[in-house]
Amino acid sequence: xxxxxxxxxxxxxxxxxxxxxxxxxxxxxxxxxxxxxxxxxxxxxxxxxxxxxxxxxxxxxxxxxxxxxxxxxxxxxxxxxxxxxxxxxxxxxxxxxxxxxxxxxxxxxxxxxxxxxxxxxxxxxxxxxxxxxxxxxxxxxxxxxxxxxxxxxxxxxxxxxxxxxxxxxxxxxxxxxxxxxxxxxxxxx
Length: 189
Fold this sequence. Notes:
The protein has 5 helices and 13 strands. It is of the alpha/beta class. It folds into 2 domains: 3-83, no CATH class; 101-188, UDP N-Acetylglucosamine Acyltransferase, domain 1. A hairpin with a 4-residue loop joins β12 (176-179) and β13 (184-188). The longest helix is centred in the first third of the chain and has 24 residues, at 3-26. It starts with a helix and ends with a strand.
């Protein structure tokens, strides 16, 4: 089937499901967090065309935002996932602050007990998990590169950049960039 035909079918399907999504958004107890998420995906769109149009466009065209939206809305996500499919092979936790940006979110696994602060950016193939029952605590404004692995009972500080392929098993202070197979500090802000 041609791409534009599939897009039109999606738009028609979503025309009927968008009122439910908007209802869930508007009356959700995490509405402010969803607005922060929208701002991270399309801040210029919100300023120019408003929240409703931005929500519509991101739910229709942006699979990464759609996953974050499903994460936030709770039990209704199962119905919504049936209508417009999320990215496959993704698991997310519920303890994520506002402004969560999931770029190319394929194969992202985050333990449900992990706590992540505001404005976190995660690329694809990232694993954030536990070792012997301990899970990471990740601060605000953290950027996690492709293929990074963060495991164990550790604390990642605020304003940290974790490079692609880094394996983080030790605490990381605020304002640093870490890289390498076994992550080490290379620069401090």
